[in-house]
Give the backbone structure.
Amino acid sequence: MRPGSSLTTSAFYILLSLSFQDRHGYEILKDVAMSSAGRVKMGPGILYTTLKRLLETGLIVEVDGRVNADRDDSRRRYYRLAHHGRTALAAELERMEQALKLARSRRLRAAR
Amino acid sequence: MTFLYEVILRAYPRAFRDAYQEEMRRVFCDLLHDPQVSRAELARLMLRDLLRGIASPDRLPPRALVARGAAYGLLIVAFSIAARALHAGQDLGFSLTPVPFIAYLPAAFWGARTTGRFSGGMWTCIVMGLVSSTMVLWDKVLFNTSPFSDVWSFAVTMLMAAGFCIVPALIGSTAGAASSRGRATRAESASAARS
């Protein structure tokens, strides 16, 4: 994933999920399914190949610390959005917003 | 279902499995016991995971290797066209038929030597073979001939070419791995000498 290039759908939703809090794999899966209204459903394979790519590009980092003591599972790996990832997510949201604005304006013009 | 997922895990490259298979198993078990996930949905996710594993980018060869393999293949095509155009009977006092086959030997060695992996040599030959097999088409278009009597003779020729690649690819990968170790040892010695 080159800096400045747009994110894949799964990468985008994973970054969005991690922008709220650190999460482990299964939590990410559930959150992505919920925040995409069930449109994006990943299996463990797609999840971890995407996480690996995000780790390699420095958009996320693996963390040792746990978020909540009552739901901690020491066997699980937790992931956190890195600064570079937050920037990439913001840029992607900006790009989507621009595209949405453009689409809306064209639709309005077409309706006239 | 768990057994099936173990099989699916085998489709992923070893390095990836070593790093993530424990986590993947755990997430799969979570999905398996999740009442909100139906069996049909789980089966769909498993199928997609299988496809992702098979088509993993880690399994694909580097772009430079593909380009070099394609260039070798084009050279074979050019050689074959030139040989047939200049010497229609292919009679130069010796047969030209083995020449393209011989070209596979250094190509397999080079691919394996560069990458330090047997698969590097085989990938070079696969790309080279795919490009050079277009010769069938050129033969038909340019000379209105067909070098193969049927599909089977074409398949057997391609298998023979693949067979030729195995030994040089093995030698090349051994040489590549040995030179990588040599470079690493020299780099370690140099850094030790500096410090």
